Amino acid sequence: MGVFLNNTVLYEAYKEIASSKFFVDKSMLIEEVVKMFTKDGQKYVCITRPRRFGKSVMANMLGAYFEKSVDAGGIFDNLEIAKSEAYREHLNKHNVIYIDFSKIPEECTNYKEYRARISNGIKADLLEAYSPDAVDVRKSLWDVLTDVWQKTGEKFIFVMDEWDAVFHMPFVTFEEQMSYLLFLKNLLKDQVYVRLAYMTGILPIAKYSDGSELNMFLEYNMATARRFSQYFGFLDAEVDGLFEKYKQITENPWITREDLRAWYDGYHTASGEQIYNPRSIVSALSDNQLRNYWTSSGTYDSIFGYIQNNVADVQDDIALMYAGEAVAADVQEYAATEMRLETRDEIYSAMVVYGLLTYENGYVSIPNRELKDSFAVMMKKEKSLGYIYNLARESRKMLAATLAGDTKTMAEILQYAHNTESPIFAYNSEIELAAVVNLVYLEARDRYRVEREDKAGKGYVDFIFYPEQKGADGIILELKVDATPETAIQQIKDKDYALRLKGKLGDVKRYCGRILLVGISYDRETKEHSCKVVCEEEVMR
Which residues of the chain have pLDDT under 50? Predict the structure, then answer.
């Protein structure tokens, strides 16, 4: 065993995951991978996904299952893979070379040092595992591996995580990136000692290897490839199971199943399934708290980094997506580029690859509240976003006016929004009006869980503001174009939308003082907004 060859760290890492309380069994991925190199004649596999979708966990699982240095039966005998006919045939029967390309030498400052760690490390492990006659460390790595195969007949399974890490390292030049691709080609392509090469990453191979370097890989991304889609991210049924366990083992559970869907669902696979961010689900259930786990405090910087070169073309799209709408886009085979991103399709392509947007049937959208929170931070901080930034700045005043029943100020803020030159303010439908309402109530998301078109009573209400602080008022908001705000208020009453808010408050042990019914309308002939706020009743919890 060594650092790269038959590394027992993979076994220990997966053993820890498999014994955790919110573990999801994805072991049938092993059967799919075995089938590829034993029956399909395909031994080069690359899985690309956004970060935090289980790529490293699956790489650890494959390494723990295949590598010779351990007996992993204690883990896998209890998992679904144990039912496979080929289970015993491959369990701990292979030499595994594991490379995490994100690891660098201590105080590494150049590409030569980075690659030397990999080449020299594998050679050292081979020298320890085989006789000196089989390993001449003066040769190139691929020649050494060929010598080992010729003298022993043994082949190797390569498990390689974060293949694209080198493209994010500041000390690696473009020329060195090309050298890295050539290194992978020489190491893997058409090499007889390769039993399987399983590789993961975020960036698509096709974009960075547009020649023949890595064209032997079959690439499986989240949005266009159906195969393997069920193994990365949690499916609805899997989250159902985790939630039931959470309720059984958690003292005073605070999270609802609906909360998990709103916060962490929203990504789509090519097979039509909706999937959840696994790290966020496990973290939320473990902590008994809903918050941003997948993203970091600097995620809004990442979002703005993609759009900053063409704010004008994406500005209206952001407003619509934040309102919950999907926007048509040609994502160009999900090619994230390192060049200056300028066209909206280039921007959205990169954002899909990194998981900042989700893609389905030609449309992109913001997947869930976890990401919406990061978009909200960006919209409140980046002045170059123009009217979006300006309206976000007005949102604190808008919420205060609503809670106070100050309909004059509410209408003035909406009129200010309408005076901004943007196609979405034409209000050709209530969708555009909803986009504006999202912006002028942006500040409310710090105190409320804002849901759009939520099922309530006898229909779907435009907006419900679920309070997240004790004593806060609940808000039900209905929009109308070419109708009166009184008509909107009456619809809220007639369809019993308040039942939804009352029930929700009881479900999650949240408390509210009043339920405010808010009607907002726009008259396309007079170009005027009208607002009405009614206190439906006092609700004490």
Answer: 297-298, 337, 455-457, 505-509, 538-541
Cβ(137)–Cβ(127) below 8 Å? yes
pLDDT of residue 506: 45
Considering its fold, how many domains does the chain have in total? Answer: 2
Same domain, 39 and 17: yes
Buried-state track 394-433, b at ≥16 Cβ within 10 A, e below 16: bbebbbebbeebbbebbbbbbeebbeeebebbebeeeebb
In a domain, 427, yes or no: no
Please give the model's pTM, rounded to 2 decimal places: 0.83
58 with 124, same domain: the answer is yes
Phi/psi zone of residue 372: left (φ > 0), alpha (ψ -120 to 50 degrees), beta?
Answer: alpha
**Rounded alpha-carbon distances, angstroms, from residue 63 to 27, 157, 219, 466:** 12, 9, 20, 45
512-523 and 459-467 strand pairing: unpaired
* Predicted local distance difference test score (pLDDT) of residue 455: 47
- The three-state secondary structure class of 435 is helix
Q: Which amino acid is at 160?
A: M
Q: Among residues 186, 214, 231, which one ends one of the domains?
A: 231
Query: What pLDDT does 273 receive?
Result: 82
- How many angstroms separate the Cα of 261 from the Cα of each of 205, 237, 284, 367? 31, 12, 12, 10
DSSP-based three-state secondary structure for 163:
coil
Q: Which of 452, 311, 286, 437 is nearest to 369 (CA)?
A: 452
Give CA–CA dist 437/351, Å, rounded.
25
Q: What are 203-233's pLDDT values in tens digits?
A: 888 666 555 688 899 888 887 788 888 999 9
What CA–CA distance (Å, rounded) separates 371 from 50? 13
Residue 387: count of CB within 10 angstroms of its CB:
20
Residues 37, 68 within the same domain: yes
Listed residues 185, 212, 231: the one ending a domain: 231
Domain ranges, residue 41: 9-231
User: Are 255 and 293 spatial neighbours (Cβ–Cβ below 8 Å)?
Assistant: no
**What does the block give as tokens for 286?**
């473990």
Say if 101 falls within a structural domain.
yes
Please indicate, yes or no, whether residues 204 and 256 belong to a single structural domain of this protein: no
101, 196: one domain: yes
Q: Residue 7 is encoded by which pair of tokens? A: 């590394």
